[in-house]
Amino acid sequence: MTTIARPVTRPLHEDRFFDPDPAIRRGARALYEETCRLPIIAPHGHIDPQILAENAPFPEPTSLIVQPDHYILRLLYARGIPLERLLEGDPRKVWQLFAEHYFLFHGTPTGAWLDHELHEVFGIAERLTGETAGRTYDAIVEKLASPEFRPRALFERFNIEVLATTDQASDPLDHHRAIRESGWQGKVIPCFRPDAVFKIAARDWPVQLDALGREHGAPLVDYGEFVHALEDRRLFFKRMGATATDHAVLEPYTGWLSPDDAEVLFQQARQGEASRADERRFEGHLLMEMARMSLEDGLVMQLHPGAFRNHNQSLFERFGPDRGGDIPVATEFTRNLRPLLNAYGNDPRFTLVLFTLDESTYSRELAPLAGHYPAVRLGPPWWFHDSLEGMRRFRERTTETASIYKTAGFNDDTRAFCSIPARHDLARRVDANFLAGLVARHVLDVSDARRMARALAYDLAKETYKL
Amino acid sequence: MTTIARPVTRPLHEDRFFDPDPAIRRGARALYEETCRLPIIAPHGHIDPQILAENAPFPEPTSLIVQPDHYILRLLYARGIPLERLLEGDPRKVWQLFAEHYFLFHGTPTGAWLDHELHEVFGIAERLTGETAGRTYDAIVEKLASPEFRPRALFERFNIEVLATTDQASDPLDHHRAIRESGWQGKVIPCFRPDAVFKIAARDWPVQLDALGREHGAPLVDYGEFVHALEDRRLFFKRMGATATDHAVLEPYTGWLSPDDAEVLFQQARQGEASRADERRFEGHLLMEMARMSLEDGLVMQLHPGAFRNHNQSLFERFGPDRGGDIPVATEFTRNLRPLLNAYGNDPRFTLVLFTLDESTYSRELAPLAGHYPAVRLGPPWWFHDSLEGMRRFRERTTETASIYKTAGFNDDTRAFCSIPARHDLARRVDANFLAGLVARHVLDVSDARRMARALAYDLAKETYKL
Amino acid sequence: MTTIARPVTRPLHEDRFFDPDPAIRRGARALYEETCRLPIIAPHGHIDPQILAENAPFPEPTSLIVQPDHYILRLLYARGIPLERLLEGDPRKVWQLFAEHYFLFHGTPTGAWLDHELHEVFGIAERLTGETAGRTYDAIVEKLASPEFRPRALFERFNIEVLATTDQASDPLDHHRAIRESGWQGKVIPCFRPDAVFKIAARDWPVQLDALGREHGAPLVDYGEFVHALEDRRLFFKRMGATATDHAVLEPYTGWLSPDDAEVLFQQARQGEASRADERRFEGHLLMEMARMSLEDGLVMQLHPGAFRNHNQSLFERFGPDRGGDIPVATEFTRNLRPLLNAYGNDPRFTLVLFTLDESTYSRELAPLAGHYPAVRLGPPWWFHDSLEGMRRFRERTTETASIYKTAGFNDDTRAFCSIPARHDLARRVDANFLAGLVARHVLDVSDARRMARALAYDLAKETYKL
Known about the structure:
Distance between the termini of chain A: 50 Å
CATH topology of the largest domain in chain A: TIM Barrel
Radius of gyration of chain A: 23 Å
Number of strands of chain A: 11
Oligomer: homotrimer
Mean pLDDT of chain A: 96
Number of helices of chain A: 21
Number of domains of chain A: 2
Shape of chain A: globular
Helix content of chain A: 40-55%
Largest sheet of chain A: 4 strands, parallel
């Protein structure tokens, strides 16, 4: 591969991600101007609350930026770099290796987020290359040592109004409590994610169940007590600020079991005898329970189906989850969600936020469901689709059927703390550009577009998640 | 949600829906200029022929515009407005409620059609908002009282060359007869839609069968007589002007049953014992029969598969069909249609117009089928996809494989009489813009594009439907 | 259909296929300038090597351009022209018929390739129409008689650095040998495609097995010997220059059989008793074997799944394969490929190039797989999707997740020798335009885009196919 000489600095262009057409660009810039300084609402993500509870300085760039980010590891691995070289050994050398392969991220959202992060958060003017790697590393190390780069200071500088974490059902939420008791004003709330106790065919289910029982304060010996524990924990999470639950399933299958069947499955699981088919039925039933509880406690229900987890068995065995290649599968919503939506979808107390990795469902199933059932909202483009083109496709395929007013605003869904502003900025730019395109084609008035830009950047997330 | 002040008037922009690029816009405008005044060919839709048979004045705006339009009801319901509030009570109040929520339709095709309808048909200069609702209502009421707003006068003003309705197999077509005998020159033809007598697992199948037998003039006691009745009714429809049949199925499954199996299923159905699986096989067999009959009587066969009807059971039970949330499902054509296409797809006497709600089939299955079998034509983007972006996707994904010359032109498919010109205008604009984009990229000559624009707006619909 | 008068000449526009936006067009032109003269790497296609072995003059235009090209035959047939009229009788009359229907190809990639071929290869200035057909035919006949239009001269003029053919496992590769022994320097290499001996349910499988045994030099009486023959033939192909294998399957199902099961299936097949389900399992097992062998011999493995072959039974029976309507089906990769990728996908010695006819898998399955497994590369948009819009969709849906560096550059996949430069030129233009769009939106630097343009046009194909 030929390497062509290039300038080593690239300040971020102020009109980046906007279409070059002058009418659209002008419109996009104007809309973006109105949203770019709005506070960040982050109702779904994977930031470790310990970071903000302890507020300790981040150690150095590699463990902050490279190693926790499976988006980065994934593509480096795919081009032939062994994970060992990225996860072990001298952080400076890993940074160097990362920088030498930075060209892989050109044209990807990860590249766009990293450019923003390096430039806007850390003030790095040079492009990241093998040649500039050392200087960049040193510059970030220096920044991280200063008080302005402590987690809480960054939280405030990022203008985060509220940040939701994602927490297991058995989590005591000690970090959240510590944050609240610290007197710091940053709003960090938990989200109830009970997946681990739903997956009755998983090897570690008994461990997870025990952990839940321990937090609940009673052993979970029958299905009734199990459900009671879930109800209890939801109330505890709610008292700790939670406004939502979250559920990751392979298929969005839903349907009630009879009380007897539920009990039988639960006891089979306790004997270690639950199959994958049992798990599917049990999860489908528990999603019905979750919706029922949402009507009572008001927690918003999120559903993230369609990821085949840990596709790469040997990598998973060596390096654990989130490094084992999670690959999407085709997902069916219309038939799978019918039992749940028939039971609860018309109830004004219920909100169900749907996500997908299968873009073919946007116009075929999701927008029609959201355009009909009062309870349904569409979550923003998820994971691989949280990108310029992915966001464009989402808007183009859902807006005409569901309107933007049945979508849930933006979620950053990130594990990488310093990427939060980059992700929200990208989303606001893409939405501004999308709306400006509609104005330029005289589909929307400017005044409509302004209202919609603000809704997408701020209002809809607050409204959907009851924040 | 913040409401930003906006101007209350918005005349429709003459270049609406065209790309802002000057080369494309100029080209689109020129092509549109050549097609915008062509007569409307409406070969598939759901206008009630009684309207034109009686030619009575429309009573008032709500029952004309809001209540029959499930596109409008759907989205209002989805944002939490109970259907009772929209379907019952004072029409003025319903209109007010609709107007207050009109922002939901910004950026949707329903919004584009309504804007056209209000402005071009009713001459309303103001935008519809809660504030202007009353004045708008009154202005429309006044118009509707004048002779120029009687149905036939509008039909002529809309420049409709031919309008096809959609009628049950047992329909005596009295309204069509009345129109023909009235001396009025408007061409309103029926379309043979025998779905109700194909759905042998439905509760009301016996009633539907009786109705068919009554019109046929003999009780339908065996399968042979049933098929004979269908043949007869097709000929009756043809004598009344029909050139096409239409079939809505969940899956486009086709395949012959043996004569014995057909008879057994038919008798099971008469005993009320047909299952959904039986119905699927029976429908697949009847589609084969329909194609066979088409070879004989020359009626064009339309297939509309893939809608899961009445998804929302409780709403369906209270408010009936078309309000119970019809939601698309993934649809398979390649294997399902093989028996039918192997039997009849090479026959020059046969035309099969395929529609879909599953856009992933456009490039994967539908364009390759239309690009091979002489009998196959692709119907225009259907329902949720009858929109700016939907039409663009359809053209982009089918033209390169099937050419525009294997598509069927435009269908408005509407239940809302006054939206007919809006829908055809939108389609002509989008097609002009699509072709102008190809000219601007030097894919097409201007002369090719002119021929194609005319074909899409007029010629192809006439040719396909033998009008 | 109205025919509008049009100019009879249309030189190809130098900016064809570029977006009209000035910033994008300027950028696309500059990038294309850097790639348009790079040699052609053609690692996958269907050119008959006999043409280049014999180097005889091509006889006349119809048998050169129309009759071998199933893209052309397909669409003419679909508009109602019987295949007999195209395949039999006077070539001049067939050419006339083709020319009269040339409007069908406007806006299709076939039209773009033909325009390029007629203009750039044969120097025809006039547009092809019924009126110009005779003159065009005569002009091509005259050219074909000259030495500059012999196959090898054209190969050199086309600037082909390497051309891979596609050859059965039992092929003695005599033409390849003749080319090598002729002293001509053109590089023409075989590709190992053993499909015919994998399809154990096919009627001609015994014949195919015998042919393989004959070339292998020993009768293939058991599974062990069969596998041994495959290993042997791969090495023979490799000695003759091959760097890749290719496999067409209905589903990309993979999975080991036990040695006993493999033997049982093989013997069943020899008795003519293998079912389609047996074939599926046997093929899934042989794909595992192929991957295993690739680790040893280094041949790159290509997989082309998802075409339902010979959909149109009666046409297939009369005219044979490639005229019987091959129609795509929905294709599943995530689960189907898991066994193969778990076994070999992490091995640096292995390269697997994946193709699809199901565009819904681009962003859902293929890009995530390529963005994770080191072995996986994405082949270029295949067949119906080898088009302007198809290539745009491919880039837009795969680049953000997999980067361009996990794609395999361009394949022309053609049977039409004179279309080779047209197809590569179109791909280079579309890629230049795609990258220029990213530069114009400030997603990429110009320097990144230049590197990427060159990679897409040349480097990635060489690297992926080890050329």
